[in-house]
Amino acid sequence: MPQAIPAVRTPLTAEFTEPDATLRHRLSVHVVLFDLDGTLVESDTAIHRHTVRWAHRHALDPGHVLRVSQGRRDIDFIHELVPHADADAELAWFDQLSVTDSAGIEPTAGARDLLAALPAGSWAVVTSATRPVADSRLAAAGLPAPEVLVCAGDVADGKPSPQGYLAAARRFGVDPAGCLVIEDSDVGLLAARAAGMPALAVAGPRTPVHGQRITGLEALSVRRGS
After folding, report:
1. Is 37 assigned a catalytic role?
2. In the predicted structure, residue 224 carries a pLDDT above the cut 90
3. 66 and 168 together in one domain
């Protein structure tokens, strides 16, 4: 089991502006927990390509598969859509394709600068991707590997279950209320809410309906101190 990171830490101040607003909001937190796909990494094109290919593999409607799979672990929608298939084999197929086909993967606007500004040991990634896929996408986007990375296989239930975010909070040894979640999907924002964590919704192709919105990571700044 991964060891917890020491909990003695200087508070962080997160400041952000919501779309069409001029007032800067301010939150005092201890750590920032990022979703990966669509939040730190632009991967929509690749995910769309891989999901459509998988849908055709099983003679499923690609549009339906894309809607059902949004923000969820591959293993969860595999069980739902092809219940009689070998789920482990299907997941391995997805992982192999995702790791070997990274065309179009790049950091989201502001991701590099925001991560560079965060103190060491103050941020994590909580993702519905498997660990090989998460590692591959972070590397393809040229982003640093987080000290804490909670992936699909680390929890029994994926988003919208809060298990992933609560696992990250335990690793840091902080109360869930002291974690700021940055997400781009409603299932992820529902997971943050269920975990008792404040959350910001990054506006994008999916336009989440839950949580306070920011236009992108460039609208968020985080500094040490209160």
Report:
1. yes
2. no
3. no
